[in-house]
Amino acid sequence: MPGDLSPSRVRFHHRFNPLNRAYVGPITSPPTNEWNPYYNDPEPGKALADVTVHNSTIEDWVVSPPGTNYRMDSLELTVDDNRVFTATGGLHYRDKCGFFGVNHLYVRGSTATISLGYSHDPSCSESKIRDGAGFWYGPILMTGTLDGDFDTLRISLLNGNTNFDGSTSDHTLEFEV
Fold first, then answer.
1. Could you give the CA distance from residue 99 to residue 92 in angstroms, rounded to a whole number?
2. How far apart are alpha carbons 177 and 46 in whole angstroms?
3. DSSP-assigned beta bridge partners for residue 27
4. Are 75 and 87 in contact (CB under 8 A)?
5. Residue 132 and residue 79: Cα distance in Å, rounded?
6. pLDDT for 126-142, tens place per residue?
């Protein structure tokens, strides 16, 4: 697992393909924003450090069809005095071999952004849960450190889940830190 995550190259600078990568971490944001010429580089000393996604296992999941809105995908953020953050909540898993991970991290001004992608473990082939069903809901935990002074932490869910509670139209949660 890489210690630093370089951006994925795609046709449009602001879009990332979550199927290409989802790292559980720890991942640290890159020191430059060279992947997007419209974004200034982060100020020296500003970074998202050691971001790690802790997925739940199938034993912790419950049946929850996303179309019913019975359980909403959600995250709550806490930040301690040392700028260590914890995002806890629950998300919908599509299959037994699926997991959430960091697709991209970047810092732009006083905003730190984490893009979460959903992926599938290619070494896992046996699944008692029907693939693609999206009917499984389980706890998730994300941890990391905000190095530097930030006003906002954004967390985007790139799988396009329309069940993300409290998000904007582009499936992004914004937290004041």
1. 10
2. 14
3. 51
4. yes
5. 34
6. 655 555 556 788 999 99
With cut-offs at 50, 70 and 90, classify the pLDDT of residue 143: very high
Total count of residues recorded for the chain: 177
Where does the pLDDT of residue 12 fall: very low under 50, low under 70, confident under 90, or very high at 90 and above?
A: very low
Q: Is the pLDDT of residue 159 over 90?
A: no
Tokens 């809901």 identify what position? 137
**Calculated CA dihedral for residues 126, 127, 131, 133, nearest 10 degrees:** 180
In sequence order, which residues have a C-beta less than 8 Å from that of residue 81 and are 6 or more positions away? none
pTM of the model: 0.80
Instruction: Determine how many CB atoms are found less than 10 A away from the CB of residue 3.
Output: 10
In this structure, the number of other CB atoms found within 10 A of the CB of residue 16 comes to 20
CB 22 within 8 A of CB 81: no
DSSP 8-class letter at 41 = P
Is the model more confident about 133 or about 1? Answer: 133
CB 50 within 8 A of CB 144: yes
Give residue 169's pLDDT.
61
Q: Do 137 and 93 meet the contact criterion of CB atoms below 8 Å apart?
A: yes
